[in-house]
Every structure is written in structure tokens, then in C-alpha cells.
User: Which sequence fits this backbone?
């Protein structure tokens, strides 16, 4: 990265202003600090400029300027990411898409919408809701996160158990390539031509280019919804209930687990109606046709009872249902009442390994002298252990990071993955060798070279830093390469 | 082929697993005979053969069941056939995880049979399931009517193992249903027609078998009305697993009309809708379908035998003894009926018959050109295909030529022009297969 002199910086700022307009460029250090991290506050890094384009042409012009100046650049949505993926790890330009937030087109008959990347996820469902449609991927941050950010991370959410993740709902994208060229990948129809570049682009964590228009599927709202809360005195019973439901051939729309510590935090904060003394609860949602819904709900109730549930109840009103979901979706915020900070993990495991892995998670965290709250997508096997800690206590943060690494190793060892929906970003880059060989990573690197040959588009992400590439065993905390270079800091 | 190379291949996979000379007749594509066909029995053997081919610069065509062997342009050189039929084991199936890992050479039918015994299935129903291999289905992105609800390989493939052009063994994705670690390599290989690597193993998501499933046929005197019914179904509360629209010729091809040939029943378009779930859900939906379609001109609502399912996908080409050409079009779902009528009119205008069948709910259709009574002039066939492609493009869609004689393929591009995205595809190909030995020249943009 070039080290910009103050005068050069001023010149570039002026030039950026001619591209995107005055009032659409930030370069003052105080203003830059607002963009120094995402939802994972462990990492911080400062950009040289933040720009707010309003069109693909403006994005392209900024990218071309960055190429000319050899400046790295990274796209940013709402900054709710949890892996440091949108940090300007090596300085340069942050391209905020927040001013490109329109729904450009809705075609109800063909059940597609064309949106800009800065559109907040939930706003699309609001827009199409009155006509009986919705956008299915529902990350817990959906009130704030953007669809462009969802594209970068291939975001999931509770209802992905039945409806799939972001990639299953994206048909095409207009992309500003890392060299500034504007290209369509896929389109409005189902079959694209040639390689599935739209499929490859989704989940590439902003390293393949910047999406400026996105064609997504919208779905008809289900005729009926039923939400069941099952309460357990032992978390193993709740895990067994997940398997029992699947064994009965049922695929609920969502199947979420909430453990004792989390229930207490949520009840303290919001009083959602979860029993405070429960060891774990499962929030299970069925949706679809009204006919047959009761029969399926009976199967769910029976499976939970046979697994040892002490109480199984169904939300009787929409308000009651919303309250139960509020407890689930607000869990992360509720941890604020029991701990000054937490770090959320995102491992995925085969569903049948739930009881074993949850035990290991609790053992690992306890051995580190820390506490953990679990609230996660049990139906998918996507864990979210939240390790609680106090950043002011010396050494505690390093213990969190080490415990997190150990948990990822456990997930990898049972045949799972180190990330289900949050992405690799900066945070997990050095743990990629847990699940990928040198050959696997080399192929990914070649794919990246095809899209981003100069490496200026979101550098420093996804791939392990060189020295960790061959080193798979130890999981202790080690500074990331960009920390060593003094380009970012862990806090 | 030099004897020394043949000897090396025999050493790599065993002498019985290398075919040459007259034994190669099943692998002749468009009149081109390969130099040899090799059948490795393990990933290591696939890698060894690839490394050899790479070293001596022989092209390699991965081969599953051969059901899509003639799709695309013929590869530039003769080269090697890499047959996967010996790699046909189910490696892992944990019903509680709703996932399975399978070797690429296993046929779809063998895989489904095993899964069904355990109450599950892979929700992908391509044609020729008895011959099509799992790897081939992924490489060609094959699908069937149930894609309406359950999607295609891109919605089901969660992990893939591939041997790349240099003989390295590479894994993408994993074994869990939700996974964003690293790039989505499974997507890269789906529909890549063997141009980026040889798929050797696949891990897929499964579904529990539904308690009950039905296929319901509604007939319409006018295709246009059937098209309106497709829209009505889409806007309703119904959750069909298939929505198929067939013109009269294709409906006859799929033998949906009682007594098919020689029947006195006048020809009519057919809307065929599948439902699954618990019995009362299926029954409610069947009744609701009749209620919705009646006012639009739908009549004779009746259940079809389950044996009709596999006839739906190939309905258009099955309408003719030897179709002169088959094209696949992808358009917006609401355009389907209109494009069918336009397309049939274009063929009639040149004195040719056509048959049209669509996965109408997702806007994907196949059209076949008749060749009865005599082989047609390639020029006329090419002219019709070109116009078909134009009407697909006019609506923002795509068209690919699935099969046609070489004389036609030389006049009508097999693949659509991918535009600017084609350059990215070329760069990917150059990165993954720099010596251009995997199915050279067969795919989009000359890849």
C-alpha cells in the first residue's frame, strides 16, 4: 500500500469528490474512525477515504481510480458483519453502499425483485409484504444488515433450515469488477449461460468485486405458521429432540436452541416468556399449508416429549409468537446485561454430533475460566457459542480467542466447518487450514486470481497468512499478519 | 496412441480397465473416436491418469453414464475418455444428518434406491436416472420437474471432490448443510461440463420422503389458457413440487393423453402439477387446483400414474421418433406459454413440426423440432433455431442448443454468448486448466 502524503491525500480527496460528489467523501481521521470496525470489535483498521457512491458508474469510477493509485478498496454495507470482512485491512478506500438502497423493481408475477446493495434486508420484506410476499433469508441482524452484505457473506438466518441461505435466493447480479468493468453475472431467468458466476460470487466476501444491482427471488408468504416452544431440564435432551424431529421425516421452517444462560439474559432484558429455570429451550416453527399443520405439530410435540421435554406449548396468538421470536433474535443484545463483551463463534457440525460438541464447548470455555451462552440454529447444526468476557481484565481476551480457536478445531474434527454464516474475514483466516488442504486453498486462490488478479479488492481476507498455511496443530492466539504490520489492532 | 503411453495407463488403472480399438464404439461422439477409454477405480487412479494426460498433452473427457455426451461442441482432439463407472459406492449416509457422500460414478437411480430404503431421497429427478451418474448430473446441471420446489444441484450440493487438470485432488465445501468457509467451489463445478476438473465425489443434502405424492393433469383446449393457469397457481397458496406445461404435441409425446396414438381425443395442452406432503395436504391441493383452473378453461382434472413423472422432462423430444434438434430455453415464467406459441408458429412457417414442454413455474423449457417424414434441410432447421433463440433473448432469456446434427451446429452456436462475463469464464478456465486439456472447445465462449 502506498503511504499517502497529506498533500497527495488532499488531491485524491478532491478527485474522489469529482467522481461521487462533495459530501460523499470522508477523509478526516475522526470521521474515518466510525468505519474502523464491523460487528466484531476485536479488529480495527483505518481507511484513507470513505466514499458514498450512488450508482454503479460511480462505484466503477472509484475502483478505477483506486487501481490507478494502487490503493486497496473494500465494499461496506451496514457494518454488521461478524468476521472483520469489510475492514480496510490494508488502508485505502472504503466504498460504502449505504446510499444505494433502493428497490428498483418488483415483478410479483415472476416473483423477483431487483434491489440495490445498500437496501436493508428487512426493508425488502416490508416493501413486498402488503402484496403477500417476503424475502426469505433472515439473518438476526436483518433490521440493519444490507442485502449487499448478505451477498458477500452468503448470510443465513433461522429460516434457512427450510428455505436455504442467500445464494439460494439470488438469480443474478450486476457487479463492478475489481478492475472497474461493469458486468452482469446471471440475470432474471433461472439458467445462466456458462459457469455459475453468480453462485461463485455470492459468499466471496467482497474479494471478487462489488455488487451494484441484485436480482433476488421473493416468496409467497405461507398460508399458516405455527410456533412451538419446547422446554428441557437438560440440554442433551434438547439436542436429542432435534434428531428425533428429523428422524420423523419433518423439516420445520426453523429450529432454534437457546441455553440456560441465554434464557436468563433474555428474560432479564425482555420478559419473553421463556422459563428461567430451564436448561435449554427449542423454538420450532412450522409453516406452509393450513391443512395438515396440526398433524405435523402433533408429531413435533410428540418428538419433544419423547426426548424428555418437560413442557411443550404452542404460541396461541401472533403477539405471543412475535414475543418468542423477539427473545431469540434479541439474545445477542441481551448478553450486554450479563457481560461487558462477548465473542460469537459460528461453527457448523453434523446435526447428530450436537450433544458431544455442546459438551465440549462448555468444557473448553469452563477450562478457560470463562462463561458461554449458546443460542443457535440447531436444525442446521450451526452453533453460536457466545463467549462472555471483560476486555478490561488483562489476558481475558487472549483466552477468549484461544478458546474460540479450540472450539473451531472441535467443529472441524467432527467433520464440520468453521463458519456457517458469518464468513471467514480477518477473524478466521488463519483457521482455514483446519478444514482445507494446501491444494484446496490453492484452487481458491486461482479462482480469486481470475476475478481479482491485482488483489486490490478487499485484501487480507479469507486466506491464511503465509506462515500459518502449513501449521495446522496449535490453536493458541497469534497476531494476524496485519496486526504485526501495524495496520490493524485487536482490542 | 503410442504404446508406451498405453502401457502407463494400463499400469495406472489395470489392463482390464483400458479400452482401445473396437471397444471404443460406445464412446464415439459425433463421429469422433477417442484414443482410449480408461476406468479408474479410485481418486488416486483418477489423479494418476490426469497427471499422465497433462504430461503428454492429451485431452480428457470425463464420462459418467454418457447421457449428455453429445451436448456442446465436439472436443478439439480425440484424447482420452475418463470413465467413472467403477467409482460407484455410497461412502457415507447418516440419516440423522440428512446428508450423504457418494462417488461420482454411482447412478442416480442406484443412489435413490438406497436412500429410499432409509426413508430419504435426493430431491433431484433428472431424466435417464438408470444411466445418469451423480457426477454427470452435477457436471451438466441436469434436473427434472421437481426442481420447481426443490431447486437444482446448486441448491443441494454441499461438498465436492475434484481432480483438477494437473492431477491434484481438491475439495470444496464440506459435509455440513450450512457452510460459508472459503469460496463456494461446488457452484463452480455445477454445469461446468467437465471443463474445470473431474468430479470424483459429491456430498449432498437430502430430504425425508413425503408421506404422499400425486401428479395431477389438467387439460386445456388453448395453450394460452393453460399459461394463465400457471400464473394462477403461482399466485395461489398452493405449494406444488412441479408445474409442467406441455403443448399438445409434447403431451402426446409424454403419453399423457389416454390411448395416446390413434386416440379420438382431440389434441390439447396439458398442465401437469405435482404435490407432496401428508395425504390431506395433497388432497386439499388437488381440489384447489381444480377450483382455480376450471374457470380458466381447465377440464378433465385427473391423477396420473407415478410412472408419468420421468416422461415429463423428455416430453418434447419424445414427441418425435428422431428429433432434428432440441433446444433449451430459459425465460421469465410468465412468458412461457406465449413463447411456446410463437416458437411453434416459427417452425410451422418453415414447414416443420415442433413440440414444447416447460418446467413452467421456473420458466425453463425444452423444444424439439420434428424430422418426420424425411431428414430436413439443415438450413431450415438452423433458421428456426436461430429465431427461437431470438425470441428467448427478446424477453431477456437464454437459449442453448441441446442436440442437433453437426451440420446444424456449424450454423447455429450451441451456447449463448455470455457477453462480458465470458471473459471471466475464460480467465477461470486459464487458471484451472492452463494447458486446456479438459474437454477443450466443448463449452461456452470456446472454453
Assistant:
Amino acid at each position: 500500500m502506498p503511504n499517502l502524503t497529506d498533500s497527495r491525500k488532499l488531491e485524491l480527496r478532491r478527485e474522489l469528490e469529482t467522481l461521487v460528489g462533495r459530501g460523499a467523501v470522508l477523509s478526516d481521521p475522526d470521521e474515518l474512525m466510525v468505519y474502523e470496525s464491523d460487528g466484531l470489535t476485536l479488529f480495527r483498521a483505518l481507511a484513507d477515504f470513505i466514499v458514498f457512491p450512488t450508482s454503479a458508474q460511480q462505484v466503477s469510477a472509484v475502483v478505477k481510480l483506486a487501481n490507478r493509485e494502487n490503493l486497496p478498496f473494500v465494499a461496506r454495507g451496514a457494518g454488521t458483519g461478524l468476521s472483520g470482512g469489510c475492514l480496510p485491512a490494508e488502508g485505502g478506500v472504503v466504498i460504502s453502499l449505504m446510499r444505494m438502497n433502493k428497490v428498483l423493481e418488483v415483478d410479483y408475477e415472476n416473483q423477483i425483485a431487483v434491489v440495490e446493495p445498500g437496501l436493508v434486508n428487512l426493508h425488502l420484506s416490508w416493501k413486498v409484504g402488503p402484496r403477500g410476499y417476503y424475502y426469505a433469508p433472515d439473518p438476526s441482524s436483518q433490521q440493519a444488515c444490507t442485502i449487499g452484505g448478505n451477498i458477500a457473506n452468503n448470510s443465513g438466518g433461522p429460516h434457512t433450515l427450510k428455505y436455504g441461505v442467500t445464494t439460494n435466493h439470488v438469480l443474478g447480479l450486476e457487479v463492478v469488477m475489481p478492475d472497474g468493468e461493469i458486468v452482469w453475472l446471471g440475470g432474471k431467468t433461472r439458467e445462466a449461460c456458462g459457469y455459475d458466476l453468480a453462485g461463485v460470487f455470492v459468499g466471496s466476501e467482497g474479494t471478487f468485486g462489488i455488487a451494484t444491482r441484485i436480482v433476488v427471488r421473493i416468496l409467497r408468504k405461507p398460508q399458516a405458521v405455527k410456533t412451538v416452544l419446547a422446554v428441557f431440564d437438560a440440554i442433551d435432551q434438547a439436542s436429542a429432540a432435534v434428531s428425533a424431529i428429523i428422524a420423523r421425516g419433518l423439516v420445520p421452517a426453523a429450529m432454534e436452541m437457546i441455553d440456560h444462560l441465554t434464557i436468563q439474559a433474555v428474560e432479564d432484558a425482555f420478559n419473553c416468556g421463556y422459563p428461567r429455570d430451564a436448561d435449554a429451550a427449542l423454538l420450532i416453527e412450522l409453516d406452509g399449508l393450513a391443512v395438515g399443520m396440526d398433524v405435523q405439530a402433533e408429531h413435533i410435540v410428540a418428538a419433544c416429549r419423547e426426548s424428555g421435554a418437560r413442557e411443550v406449548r404452542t404460541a396461541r396468538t401472533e403477539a405471543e409468537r412475535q414475543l418468542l421470536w423477539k427473545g431469540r433474535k434479541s439474545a445477542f443484545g441481551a448478553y450486554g446485561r450479563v457481560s461487558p463483551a462477548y465473542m460469537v463463534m459460528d461453527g457448523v457440525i453434523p446435526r447428530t454430533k450436537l450433544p458431544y460438541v455442546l459438551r465440549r464447548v462448555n468444557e473448553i470455555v469452563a477450562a478457560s475460566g470463562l462463561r458461554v451462552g449458546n443460542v443457535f440454529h440447531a436444525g442446521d447444526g450451526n452453533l453460536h457459542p457466545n463467549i462472555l468476557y471483560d476486555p478490561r481484565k488483562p489476558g481475558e481476551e487472549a483466552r477468549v480467542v484461544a478458546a474460540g480457536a479450540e472450539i473451531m478445531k472441535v467443529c472441524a474434527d467432527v467433520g464440520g466447518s468453521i463458519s456457517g454464516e458469518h464468513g471467514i474475514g480477518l477473524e478466521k483466516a488463519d483457521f482455514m487450514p483446519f478444514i482445507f488442504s494446501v491444494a484446496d486453498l490453492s484452487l481458491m486462490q486461482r479462482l480469486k486470481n481470475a476475478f481479482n488478479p491485482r488483489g486490490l479488492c478487499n485484501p487480507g481476507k479469507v486466506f491464511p497468512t503465509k506462515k500459518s498455511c502449513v501449521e495446522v496443530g496449535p490453536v493458541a492466539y497469534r497476531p494476524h499478519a496485519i496486526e504485526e504490520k501495524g495496520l490493524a489492532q485487536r482490542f | 496412441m503410442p504404446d508406451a503411453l498405453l502401457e502407463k495407463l494400463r499400469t495406472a488403472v489395470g489392463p482390464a480397465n483400458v479400452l482401445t480399438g473396437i471397444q471404443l464404439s460406445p464412446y464415439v461422439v459425433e463421429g469422433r473416436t477417442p484414443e482410449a477409454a480408461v476406468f479408474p477405480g479410485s481418486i488416486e487412479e483418477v489423479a494418476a491418469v490426469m497427471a499422465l494426460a497433462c504430461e503428454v498433452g492429451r485431452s480428457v473427457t470425463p464420462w459418467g453414464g454418457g447421457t449428455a455426451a453429445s451436448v456442446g461442441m465436439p472436443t478439439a482432439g480425440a484424447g482420452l475418455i475418463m470413465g467413472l463407472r467403477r467409482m460407484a459406492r455410497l461412502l457415507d449416509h447418516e440419516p440423522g444428518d440428512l446428508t450423504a457422500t457418494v462417488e461420482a460414478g454411482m447412478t442416480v437411480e442406484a443412489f435413490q434406491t438406497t436412500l429410499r430404503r432409509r426413508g430419504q431421497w435426493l430431491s433431484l429427478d433428472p431424466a435417464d436416472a438408470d444411466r445418469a451418474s451423480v457426477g454427470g448430473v452435477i457436471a451438466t446441471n441436469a434436473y427434472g420437474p421437481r426442481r420447481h420446489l426443490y431447486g437444482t444441484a446448486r441448491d443441494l450440493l454441499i461438498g465436492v471432490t475434484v481432480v483438477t487438470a494437473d492431477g491434484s485432488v481438491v475439495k470444496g465445501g464440506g459435509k455440513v448443510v450450512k457452510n460459508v468457509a472459503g469460496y463456494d467451489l461446488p457452484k463452480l463445478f455445477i454445469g461446468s461440463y467437465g471443463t474445470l476438473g473431474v468430479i470424483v465425489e459429491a456430498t449432498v443434502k437430502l430430504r425425508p420422503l413425503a408421506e404422499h405424492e400425486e401428479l395431477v393433469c389438467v387439460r386445456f383446449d388453448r395453450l394460452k389458457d393453460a399459461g394463465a393457469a400457471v400464473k394462477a397457481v403461482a399466485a395461489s397458496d398452493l405449494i406444488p413440487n412441479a408445474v409442467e406445461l406441455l403443448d399438445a404435441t409434447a403431451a402426446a409425446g409424454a403419453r399423457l393423453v389416454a390411448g395416446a396414438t390413434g386416440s379420438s381425443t382431440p389434441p390439447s395442452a396439458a398442465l401437469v402439477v405435482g404435490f407432496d406432503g401428508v395425504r390431506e395436504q395433497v388432497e386439499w391441493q388437488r381440489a384447489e387446483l381444480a377450483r382455480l383452473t376450471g374457470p380458466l378453461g381447465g377440464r378433465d382434472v385427473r391423477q396420473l400414474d407415478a410412472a408419468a413423472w420421468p416422461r415429463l422432462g423428455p416430453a418434447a423430444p419424445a414427441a418425435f421418433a428422431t428429433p432434428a434438434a432440441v433446444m433449451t430455453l430459459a425465460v421469465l415464467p410468465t412468458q412461457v406459454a406465449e413463447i411456446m406459441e410463437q416458437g411453434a408458429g416459427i417452425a410451422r412457417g418453415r414447414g416443420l413440426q415442433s413440440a414444447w414442454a416447460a418446467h413452467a413455474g421456473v420458466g425453463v423449457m425444452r423444444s424439439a423440432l420434428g424430422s418426420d417424414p424425411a431428414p430436413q434441410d439443415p438450413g431450415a432447421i438452423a433458421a428456426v433455431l436461430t429465431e427461437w433463440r431470438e425470441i428467448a433473448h427478446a424477453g431477456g432469456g437464454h437459449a442453448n442448443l441441446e442436440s442437433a446434427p453437426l451440420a446444424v451446429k456449424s450454423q447455429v452456436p450451441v451456447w449463448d454468448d455470455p457477453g462480458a462475463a465470458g471473459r471471466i469464464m475464460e480467465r477461470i478456465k486459464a487458471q484451472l486448466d492452463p494447458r486446456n486439456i479438459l474437454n477443450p472447445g466443448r463449452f461456452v465462449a470456446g472454453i
Remarks:
- Chain B touches chain A through 82 residues (CB under 8 Å).
